[in-house]
Amino acid sequence: MNIINIEHIAKIYKVGFEEVHALRDVSLKIDKNEYVAIMGPSGSGKSTLMNILGCLDTPTSGKYEFKGVSVSDMSDNELAKIRNKEIGFVFQTFNLLARSDAVHNVELPLIYAGVPTAERRERAIQALIDVGLKDRLHHKPNELSGGQRQRVAIARALVTNPSIILADEPTGNLDSKTGEEIMVLFHEIHEKGNTIILVTHEEYIAEHAARIVRLKDGLIESDERVERRYIPKTKNTLVT
Amino acid sequence: MRVLLFELKEGLMIALRAIASNKIRAMLTMLGIFIGVTVVVTMSTAIKGIDNSFQQGISSLGSDVLYIDKWAWFSNVEWWKMRNRKNITMEEFEKFKNLAKLPVAVAPVINSVQTVKYQERRVENVFINGSNADYVKTTNFTFAEGRFYSEIESNSSRQVAVIGSEIAKKLFPNLSALDKTIKIGGENFRVVGVLAEQGSFILGPWNPDNQVYVPIGTIFKNFASNRWRSITINVRAAGPAMVEETKAEAEGVMRKVRGLSYDQENDFSINQQEGLQENYNSVVGVIQIAGLFITGLSLFVGAIGIMNIMFVSVKERTKEIGLRKAIGAKRRTILAQFLLESSVICLVGGFAGLIAAVILSMLINQFIPTSIQIGSVVLGISISLITGIISGLAPAYTAAKMDPVEALRYE
Ligand SMILES: Nc1ncnc2c1ncn2[C@@H]1O[C@H](COP(=O)(O)OP(=O)(O)OP(=O)(O)O)[C@@H](O)[C@H]1O
Ligand SMILES: [Mg+2]
């Protein structure tokens, strides 16, 4: 069964008297353990699509089923619950709480999930170890490099064991070497059985994915399975 | 219930983190509520203290005592009309006493202001109360030492005196006043009794503690100018229930003594503690309303300050709110977070204000007795909590209804 099934999604923004068609008619099915890259020129509607997939935003029209359940009819609270339990977001700008250390940043979703203090500490620390930040547990964002910040953000996305990871240009703010390291991390996460959707502008980043969806002017231009670039299947031993 | 408690605890933790990360701003915000609560609590403590003193003082007057006087304490009779009234004389008092059947005690009173001395110690401007032995029955006096002067002493105008506790303290700081000879306006009087503390500071020279009591004859004898002054007749009813009846009888008897015909109006007044109480209540009412207004204003200013800061804080944290929503915070969780933040700020400010108020009250207590009430404490706490919630509500609501996508995009 597919995790995500959208049919004829449209998103129209009204700016003054003008209408902006961010998405015109988008249909997409994504299965469990898929690794999808979404590409397209700036303004083609990639972020808009991601926000809708992540239940952050609602489409103007069209159908969205998440794990077979229609999202359109959900209340605000139910959407918050889906975002909390089923979806892990990774943003281009990391979006960490500046004054909190890595552990607190990672345990944040668990607070909203109602996980008791001791357990969520433990899980947050484990998630940070998994992304290779064992010795950076109590560093604040401004005491971390860009790559490390994104790892904290990835740990935060993973800590709830979501059904799907949504990453909107996760390497957009990183240099190519650090970006590559993050991609290795995504690769490992995918190997463990996670489902990943990733937005990127870079072909070499998209090559990590098994499927590339290209958007243009709010429409899907192409959607194809691709040959994956070889990734050394080593344990993550990268610089932290 | 468990879930609610969990959310409350977590919300509180988040709020505390937010406050801790911006201590100076939180402190400045607290200042507003701090001042408000300090003013409210100190004010209410002081008013309560003054009120206690007044009630204590007024009860020393006795609620069932009538004062027949040339002058009305509170009335709309013109001043010149009262001035033209005849003086009340000792003869009229005697007649009144014989005719009035309801009172349990009737006493003539005249006051003279004199200096009281014992050796080199002196007290100026003391009210010297001249009356007869029945006077004590028109009061609720209790004695620290000795007794009131007797009927024999009063009838024969002996030079004896009963002194109030404050006078005793000033003239005899560390020895018994009993049987000592004091000088009142230069004349010798022997002290036969000392009152226990009766009234309160608020009555000033009228406070029984600041007065000296002597047989009325000695006033006329030693201070001759008083012979032509009007006396007051103190009339005690047989309990508060009998006050109205006794008053009606006293009016009738007094009219008869004065020989007034039915169409002439009273040429005397019958005063009562009740009038004093009413007057006092209206004064205190004004003070309380003024106090309420001032404190209300200062709290209002404080609340606006908090609301302003909370709005800024929400605006500043737009991105954070978006992030929290993106990872699963519900609207009510965000709402609670900001409400708790403003409530905690207000409560801390309120507590500090309360402590300041207690210290202030203790300082004021040096001048007028204040009374710190548990009610004032509850008042202070609830005011700060309510202010916190009210001033936090609008900003918290703004935060809660933010669109996560917009919020995340905010720079
Ligand atoms: N809140 C909004 N109000 C009005 N128009 C919007 C809004 N959000 C997005 N748009 C418009 O919708 C279109 C798609 O925007 P979107 O952010 O999805 O593009 P994108 O593919 O993510 O671009 P980029 O690669 O630059 O991030 C753009 O034309 C944009 O101007
Ligand atoms: Mg985008």
Quick overview of this protein structure:
Helix content of chain A is 32%, strand content 28%.
Features:
heterodimer, A: 240 residues, alpha/beta, Rossmann fold, 4-stranded antiparallel beta sheet, 7 helices, 32% helix, globular, B: 411 residues, alpha+beta, 6-stranded mixed barrel, 13 helices, 10 strands, 55% helix, binds adenosine-5'-triphosphate, binds magnesium ion
Strand content range of chain B: 15-25%
Query: Which descriptor suits the 3D outline of chain B?
Result: elongated
Q: Could you estimate the helical fraction of the residues of chain A in percent?
A: 25-40%
Q: Structural class of the helices, strands and pairings of chain A? A: alpha/beta
Reported for the largest beta sheet of chain A, the result is: 6 strands, mixed
- Share of helix among residues of chain B? 40-55%
Count of individual helical segments of chain B: 13
Care to count the β-strands of chain B? Answer: 10
Q: Could you name the CATH homologous superfamily of chain A? A: P-loop containing nucleotide triphosphate hydrolases
What's the CATH architecture of chain A?
A: 3-Layer(aba) Sandwich
Tell me the span between the first and last alpha carbons of chain B: 38 Å
**Low-confidence residue ranges of chain B:** none
Identify the most extensive interface between protein chains. Answer: A-B, 25 and 24 residues
Mean pLDDT of chain A: 92
What is the radius of gyration of chain A? 18 Å
* CATH level-3 fold name of chain A: Rossmann fold
List ligands, each type once. adenosine-5'-triphosphate, magnesium ion
Strand order of the largest sheet of chain B: 2-3-8-5-7-6
Total number of distinct structural domains of chain B: 2
